[in-house]
Amino acid sequence: MTIEFMKNVIVHRRNDFSLDKTAFLTIHGMSQNPAQSPPAANIRERLRRLTPYFGSQKGIWAVAVLATLVGALTEPMIPALFQPLLDKGFSENKLPLWIIPAVVVGLFAVRGLANFVAQYALSRITNDGMEKLRSRLFSQLMKADLSLFSKQSASTLSNTIVYEVQTGAAQLVTAVIALTRDGFTLIALLSYLMWLNWKLTLLVFTVAPGLSWIMKALSRRLYKLTKESQNATDNLAYVVEENVLAHRVVRLQGGQEHQVARFKQLALVLRRLALKSTVASAAMTPLTQMVAALSLSMVLVMALYQSQNGASGATVGGFVAFITAMLMLIAPIKRLTEISNPITRGLAALERGLNLIDDAQEETQGRHTTARAQGAVTWSDVRVQFSADTQPALIGISLHVKPGETVALVGTSGAGKSTLVQLLPRFVQPSAGTVALDGIPLEDWSLSNLREQIAMVSQDVIMLNDTVAANVCLGQNADRARIQASLEAANLWAHVQQMPQGMDTVLGHNASELSGGQRQRLAIARAVYKDAPLLILDEATSALDNESERSVQEALQKLMQGRTTLIVAHRLSTIEHADRVVVMEKGQVVEQGAPAELLARGGAYARLHHRGEWASEPR
Ligand SMILES: Nc1ncnc2c1ncn2[C@@H]1O[C@H](COP(=O)(O)OP(=O)(O)OP(=O)(O)O)[C@@H](O)[C@H]1O
Ligand SMILES: [Mg+2]
Question: How far apart are CA 378 and CA 351, in angstroms?
Answer without folding.
Answer: 44
